[in-house]
Recover the amino acids of this structure.
């Protein structure tokens, strides 16, 4: 049996949601001696959220590394990590640092945890067809590490700690993350808010839909609701967004500097109505507020500019958990 007291656990995180899932995993698996590797980025808001969230748990060690760190800093970190054997390693997304750690560090078990609906794409396109070690020209730089005696292929079974109802494959294990720790610790009795919370997504910022399509959706919601609407922009949305010009007495913008889940919990807000597109927040918030009315604005496939099949699969998952489908041109909200 694995000695969970003496063997450390390693958590590789790059976003606020990954830190939330790390803390949840610590409590779900009853882990001690936990080391956090924080990969920072140039996104100041993202980094501020992460540094605040780190303080919610007393980590044994926090290692900070810049997302665009030099090649030799990567080498130095891997060299230090290789000195230790780990119990569990948790990560999200198959970035360069994550791949290097998984390929070279000795551990007992590996879990992939969620960082958005990207988990669904990764599951369907990489794990099921067993393509985690397939490289293209963009990945050739990884082979530099071979010159220094490091490996670049992942040989571990990738297990999942996820909000999504995904089936196990081959030897993998799928553990459902119900955010039980955060529900127990932070979910307090509160009065139900009668406002509509509209959660923005950077869909035109990422060239997934046209700006016109996105604004048409926002305008339609605004024109068909008789309740006050609070628009909470995604951290990836630009401050110069034309959405801001739509504000009037029934439509307010609320900028928050913490994950949406902690915003509601920390402010003791029990939302009665949440609207968005295909956000992961549907899955997390539904765990906290099962009686809330959730609606997903469905954008027809022909209006999606990029990744239409992937987005359609995300919508399928969202509707499968009981999120109501709000047609783009529906006249009711």
């Amino acid at each position: 049996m694995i000695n969970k007291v003496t063997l450390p656990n390693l958590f590789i995180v790059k976003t606020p949601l990954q830190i939330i899932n790390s803390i949840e995993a610590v409590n779900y698996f009853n882990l001690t001696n936990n080391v956090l590797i924080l990969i920072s980025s140039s996104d100041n808001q993202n980094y501020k959220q992460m540094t605040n969230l780190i303080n919610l748990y007393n980590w044994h060690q926090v290692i900070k590394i810049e997302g665009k760190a030099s090649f030799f800093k990567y080498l130095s970190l891997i060299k230090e990590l290789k000195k230790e054997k780990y119990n569990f390693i948790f990560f999200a997304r198959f970035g360069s640092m994550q791949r290097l750690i998984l390929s070279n560090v000795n551990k007992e078990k590996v879990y992939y945890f969620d960082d958005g609906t990207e988990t669904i794409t990764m599951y369907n396109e990489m794990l099921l067809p067993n393509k985690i070690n397939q490289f293209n020209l963009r990945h050739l730089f990884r082979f530099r590490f071979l010159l220094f005696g490091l490996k670049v292929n992942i040989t571990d079974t990738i297990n999942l700690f996820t909000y999504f109802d995904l089936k196990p494959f081959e030897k993998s294990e799928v553990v459902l993350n119900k955010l039980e720790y955060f529900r127990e610790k932070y979910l307090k009795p509160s009065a139900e808010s009668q406002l509509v919370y509209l959660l923005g997504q950077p869909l035109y910022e990422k060239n997934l839909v046209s700006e016109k399509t996105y604004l048409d959706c926002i305008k339609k919601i605004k024109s068909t609701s008789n309740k006050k609407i609070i628009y909470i922009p995604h951290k990836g949305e630009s401050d110069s967004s034309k959405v801001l010009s739509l504000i009037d007495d029934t439509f307010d913008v609320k900028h928050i500097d913490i994950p949406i889940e902690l915003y509601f919990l920390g402010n003791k807000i029990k939302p009665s109505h949440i609207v968005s597109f295909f956000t992961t927040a549907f899955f997390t918030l539904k765990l906290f507020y099962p009686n809330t009315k959730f609606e997903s604005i469905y954008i027809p496939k022909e209006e999606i500019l990029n990744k239409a099949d992937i987005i359609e699969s995300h919508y399928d998952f969202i509707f499968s958990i009981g999120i109501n489908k709000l047609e783009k041109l529906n006249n009711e909200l």
User: Anything to note?
Assistant: The CA atoms of residues 4 and 252 lie 48 Å apart. The mean pLDDT is 86. The chain has ten helices and 13 strands.
